[in-house]
Amino acid sequence: MRTLVQDKPTVLIVDDQLTSRKMLADVLMSEGYAVVEAENGEQALAIVPSVNPDLILLDVVMPGINGFEVCRQLKSDEQTRLIPVIFITSLEDKEARLKGIEASGDEFLTRPIDRMELSARVKSLVRQHQLNQDLDHAEQVLFSIARAVESRDPNTGDHCERLVHRGEAFGKFLGLARSEVRDLMWAGYLHDIGKLGIPDAILLKPGKFIPEEFEVMKQHVIIGENICKPLRTMRGVLPIIRHHHERWDGTGYPDKLAKHDIPYLAQVFQIIDIYDALVSERPYKKGMSASEALDLLQEEAQRGWRNPDLTRRFTDFIYSTELKSDNRPIWFERYLKRPAPDKAIEKIVV
Ligand SMILES: [Fe+2]
Q1: For FRET with 215, which of 3, 66, 141, 346 sits at 20 to 30 Å CA-CA?
Q2: Do the bridges between strand 3-4 and strand 34-38 make them parallel or antiparallel, or are there none, so unpaired?
């Protein structure tokens, strides 16, 4: 194994033939890449996590694990799945290409290798991978900032972690799409990132805000949306960040949206957020029991603040998953016995 890693894009060449590795390495190093070589599939799988290459050139036919299997393993691992893989093969047949596609390979190069084609494909896939990595890093930075914001407020404890876990569970309970469940989970960390722009004197003030202070506090949803807006992958989280303080009757903020004008995920997230605040112990208050908190949410729904159907579904979720109890409140028993809702309405609500 030859290793030459510097602060350059790194390509891992996996081939059992020394001459073949050398030819590819010479071309790539002359074009400014750092090159790492592995002479079989086992060696490649062992070094990928530490080398973290920007691209892998992978021979298909090798003793031991073949290239397709190496690729399949890399693409099924969360840590390595985004590394692009180019298969290098003498096999020109259709079957090999189909197997490569099945193994989630990104490109094929057929021997004899055309130098121009090699350069062009490596350049394009390495650039794509580096862009993806920058995006990953940007997301991580955002999550770190969000945690720092949470830690500014000693009252909230592990509020965000709980929101993430309950967001995932309730999202699945509602049958939401995978991407929507992910948005709910991300919102658990990011929904209040805009508090970064709220002065300590207001954010940490014990007791109630005066109207002027409340106006400043309301800005956290706009600031948070602006912080996350530049990231394309955050698109689904933005409506949750902006609208998690709207109310069903239009008396919330920042846009005074009412009923189904409030983005659905923002409605879902808000119920989880409020429930957690109610059941959590804070320095200035005891935590409510689950059934007390659900009663209060129900009262708020009756007052017009929350989506009544969604509030019932959340109650159903807590009783059927977290409490696993038959000791349900009377209003909820009545709800369970009610006639099936009109399909059209149910469709809009869900
Ligand atoms: Fe908030």
Answers
A1: 141
A2: antiparallel
17 and 97 belong to one structural domain? yes
Give residue 177 CA to ligand 1 midpoint distance, Å: 24
Instruction: Provide long-range contacts, Cβ within 8 A and 24+ apart, for 287-292.
Output: 290/318, 290/322, 290/323, 291/323, 291/327, 291/328, 291/329
Residue 211 has pLDDT above 70, yes or no: yes
Q: What CATH number does residue 104 fall under?
A: 3.40.50.2300
Q: Amino acid letter at 158? A: D
For residue 339, name the pLDDT band (cuts at 50, 70, 90): very low
Residue 254: asked if its preceding bond is cis (omega within 30°), the reply is yes
Q: CATH number, domain at 284? A: 1.10.3210.10
Q: Please, what is the angle between helix 115-152 and helix 178-190, to 10°?
A: 50
Q: Is 286 exposed, middle or buried (CB count within 10 Å of its CB: 0-12, 13-18, 19+)?
A: exposed
pTM: 0.63
Strand order in the sheet with 10-14: 3-4, 34-38, 10-14, 55-59, 85-89, 107-110
- Dist. CA 331 → ligand 1 center (Å): 29
Q: How far is the CA of 204 from the centre of ligand 1 (A)?
A: 14
How confident is the model over 57-76, as a mean pLDDT? 92
Residue in the block written with tokens 């309950």 = 166
Query: Ligand 1: distance of its center to the CA of 196 in Å?
Result: 12
Residue 234 lies in a domain: yes
